[in-house]
Specification:
Layout lengths: L16 H8 L3 H15 L1
Helix pairs in contact: 1-2
Length: 43
């Protein structure tokens, strides 16, 4: 399935930003997607 945040094909995509924030600590693509999202949402 395609993750709506990082736009990559992943086994278990994050369902919301809270979940992505948790994963971003360990997974680089989630961290990158989170930063991109913050730029759009809060920029």
């Amino acid at each position: 399935m395609i993750c709506p945040f990082c736009k990559q094909e992943v086994d278990e995509p994050c369902q919301n930003t809270v979940e992505m924030q948790r994963r971003a600590n360990q997974i680089e693509r989630c961290n990158y997607a989170l930063k991109s999202l913050k730029g759009i949402v809060f920029g």
